[in-house]
Amino acid sequence: MLSLLFVIIASYLIGSIPFGIIISKRFRGFDIRTKGSGNIGSTNAFRILGWKLGLVVQVLDLAKGLGVVLLATYFFNGLPFHNATPFEDITVFRLIAGCSAVLGHVFTIFAGFRGGKGISTTAGMMIGIAPVEVAVALGIFLLVVFFSGYVSLASIIAALTLPTTMFVRHNALGVQITGYSTLIFFVLGLSIFLVYTHRANIGRLLEKREHRFEKLRIFHKANAS
């Protein structure tokens, strides 16, 4: 029980590290929460800090999710409760750590419990659990960004792509996914949570007020020319 509590607390604190704030203050001399959308995540970082520092923030946020999965693997010594899922105990342990990090990122204790949207940290966690689904979601994300220029829209669609891809692979393509009957509901719940964190973006998209990254609309430029 002590190792589980330690991993949950440590994962939450790691997920809570507000790299967007740290990077903006260190390299630009201001708090990123005072600029753009006010969000500390990588999308606002790209918009306000430029692509280089934005990429740094994104990689660090992703590393939080992957890092806690590795942390959980290192400290795993069994579960203090009966595992009723078809997963191995260590996989359940990793999922708990990953979810704690995502909650830490979205509700960071270091910034008044107002953090990022959780996409990058979730991606980092899922790389160690469902890498094929993450790869497909990444491809969809890039296509939507290159066509529309809306990172928020791409993030929402990518989040929904995770459970959709898993469902299609298992039920339509016959791929045997260990613990599918449990994992599909976990991924679906996580995707719904990520869509919820983008509720303000959805409102702006419907009102056509969402910020668009015109420089990323590669396919639009190709068609226009």
Quaternary state of the chains: single chain
Structural class: mainly alpha
Number of domains: 2
> Biggest sheet, open or closed, and with what strands and sense?
none
Query: What's the β-strand tally?
Result: 0
Query: What is the end-to-end distance?
Result: 62 Å
What is the H-and-E element order? HHHHHHHHHHH
Residue stretches low in confidence (pLDDT < 50, at least 5 long) are none
Please indicate the percent range of residues in DSSP E strands (runs of 2 or more): under 5%
Overall geometry: globular
Q: Helical region count? A: 11
Helix amount, in percent? over 70%
Q: Report the C-alpha radius of gyration, rounded.
A: 18 Å
Mean pLDDT: 90
Can you give a write-up of this model?
With about 220 residues, the chain is an all-alpha fold. It has helices spanning about 1-15, 20-30, 40-50, 50-75, 90-105, 120-125, 130-150, 150-170, 180-195, 200-205, 220-225. It folds into two domains: about 1-115, no CATH class; about 130-225. The chain is about 70% helix and about 0% strand. Helix 4 runs antiparallel to helix 5, helix 4 (about 50-75) crosses helix 6 and helix 7 (about 130-150) runs antiparallel to helix 8. The N and C termini lie far apart (about 60 Å).
Which labels suit this protein?
70% helix; 11 helices; 225 residues; mainly alpha; 2 domains; single chain
Concise overview:
The protein contains eleven helices and no strands. It is globular, with a radius of gyration of 18 Å.
Question: Can you lay out the helices and strands and say which pair or pack?
Answer:
Elements: H1 2-16, H2 19-28, H3 42-49, H4 51-75, H5 89-106, H6 119-127, H7 131-148, H8 151-172, H9 180-197, H10 199-206, H11 218-224
Helix pairs in contact: 1-4, 1-5, 2-4, 3-4, 4-5, 4-6, 5-6, 7-8, 8-9
